[in-house]
Every structure is written in C-alpha cells, then in structure tokens.
Write the structure tokens for this entry.
Amino acid sequence: MLASNFRLKQQKDFKKTFSTGKTASSGLFVVKYSKNSARNSRFAVIVSNKVSKKAVLRNKLRRRVKSWLLEQGTNILPGQDVIIIAKHQAAGAEINEIRKNLEKAFVRAKLIKNV
C-alpha cells in the first residue's frame, strides 16, 4: 500500500493534473502527469467499471499497479502528480505484461530515472 504522502487525494489536484498535465500511454495504461510543489511524487490509480464489472478484478489490477510503484520507488522522478488510468485491455493481462506496459508508459513520460 502506498503511504499517505505518496497518494493523490484532493479533487483540486486531480483537476489540475487532468487539465494542465501531459499524457503518455502504452497498450494497457494512460498516464497523466504534472509537476507539483511537494518533494515527492504522488500517485492515483483509476480502474473504472468499463475495465471490468467485477470489483475483485478491478482491485486486483489496482494492487498490481501499486506494487509496481512501490518496487520502482526511488527510480521515479520526485515532484510529480501522476494519475494512472487502466484501459479495458488491462483486465485480462498477466502481471509481467502489466509491468512492461507501466514501464513503457513511464519511460515515454520521462518519469523514470536511469533509463
């Protein structure tokens, strides 16, 4: 689970990221990101009902994305607000495919160090 200071929670932050942020995507995910005034990056994961009608699958996908974020920890550039939106193809994806697509989206967005 992501610590509270690494989560994007307030509606104003979501609005700012959606309206002024940049976008990068891969086959399974869309990443919206913008600079923030904090020292650390903050994240939100959105998995809508369009991805799967079953809450179990949506939560499983959310947990897999968050575990990847925890593993990448120090590799992700600080000072960003990042919203990860799952596409409907992500529901049936294996864990390795999810990790590859997340890395691809973050590399395109230039949010990962040393790549």
